[in-house]
Write a structure and sequence with these properties.
This protein is an alpha/beta fold. It has twelve helices and nine strands. It binds phosphoric acid mono(formamide)ester.
Length: 342
């Protein structure tokens, strides 16, 4: 590609940034706090950044900026997509683990937030302990002078849902009227957060999707989140249905996202939680369930997936699966998020 074309394509990203609403300095803890217009701006920029990367064009829109990433839990996609994204934007990201910084000796959240604000340009946090994570992010945000970006908490995983929506839009174009099935699945090795299904039911109806959420009774989500999701759907003229029948998420669906989560709302006892998960081994995504959807049904999962229990290899490795496109889109939406806020 010649320099003139390179320049004009780079201008396309720069132009999108220059006309974007005033998002610099904004936190991103839940999509609920961003308007549809602001989210649309992010998707538009993510698409331009994705095209620029495919064309081999540099997009150094955050030169000499630093993002701190505090991880209370493990990560493969989130850490590497944020860190790689900062590199591609011309900045730098530093992964911090509580046991290696003074949080381990009890340094206050306020002091941590204020000190990092004096050095860098953004603080991203993953803290998923149920009943603690979101409160921690909020406390950092109250005390920081730089944007706080969620890398997942106990209530929300907004970056995952941005990537999910971009993937759906790439596959289908218009999203109004599509049926999205979100189903609980059986993965009894550990208690996953409820933040992915909660963020899905909050945002997808705002973009025109009808959502069917299926889970066994003990795996209900936070009542206030289900209520907010219903209010979002009503305002958008879309539908949310909640069922205790696995197949309801698949029947006549365009997209399914079957994934496991813990019964955090029902019990705080880990052993009891694992026992409840094991009570529903038939909640597995297989070819038979996939056949219930429309002929173009796609399978999505935020990963990591528990192969053989949440989903068969035949489905996750099959032609309906878009899980690697979905994982890749974490990079593009988060680059847009960082470029807009930092
Ligand atoms: N989907 C997701 O957040 O993956 P990681 O836990 O690997 O970051």
């Amino acid at each position: 590609m010649n320099d003139a074309v390179n320049e004009s394509r780079n201008d396309s990203v720069g132009e999108a940034l220059s006309v974007s609403p005033a998002l610099k300095g904004r936190d991103f803890i839940t999509t609920q706090e961003w308007t549809l217009e602001e989210l649309e701006t992010l998707f538009e920029l993510a698409t331009r950044l994705k095209r620029a990367k495919a064309a081999g064009e540099a997009t150094p829109h955050l030169p000499a900026k630093t993002l701190y990433m505090i991880f209370f839990e493990a990560s493969t996609r989130t850490r590497n997509s944020f860190e790689t994204g900062m590199t591609q934007l011309g900045g730098h990201a530093i992964a911090l683990f509580p046991e290696h910084i003074q949080i381990s000796h009890g340094e206050s959240t306020r002091d941590t937030a204020k000190v990092l604000s004096r050095y860098g340009d953004g603080i991203a946090i993953r803290h998923c302990i149920y009943g603690e994570g979101n409160a921690y992010l909020r406390e950092v945000a109250e005390n920081a002078d730089i944007p706080v970006l969620s890398m997942q908490c106990d209530v929300y995983h907004p970056c995952q849902i941005l990537a999910d929506y971009l993937t759906i839009r790439e596959k289908f174009g218009e999203t109004r009227g599509l049926k999205l099935g979100v189903a609980w699945t059986c993965a009894p090795n550990y208690l996953r957060p409820i933040s992915v299904p909660q963020s899905l039911i909050l945002m997808m109806p705002r973009f025109g999707l009808d959502v069917t959420l299926a889970y066994p009774p003990e795996f209900r989500l936070m009542p206030e989140i289900e209520e907010q999701a219903k209010a979002n759907a009503e305002a958008a003229g879309t539908r949310i249905e909640i069922s205790d029948r696995f197949e309801d998420a698949f029947e006549d669906a365009d997209i399914v996202i079957p994934k496991s989560w813990g019964p955090h709302v029902t019990t705080r006892h880990p052993d009891e939680g694992l026992r409840l998960i094991e009570a529903y081994p038939e909640w597995t995504c297989d070819a038979e369930r996939m056949a219930l959807g429309k002929s173009h049904l796609i399978y999505m999962h935020p990963l990591p997936a528990d192969r053989g229990r949440e989903v068969t290899d035949e489905v996750i490795d099959g032609p309906q699966s878009v899980v690697y496109d979905e994982a890749e889109n974490r990079l593009h939406v988060q680059k847009a998020l960082m470029a807009l806020t930092m």
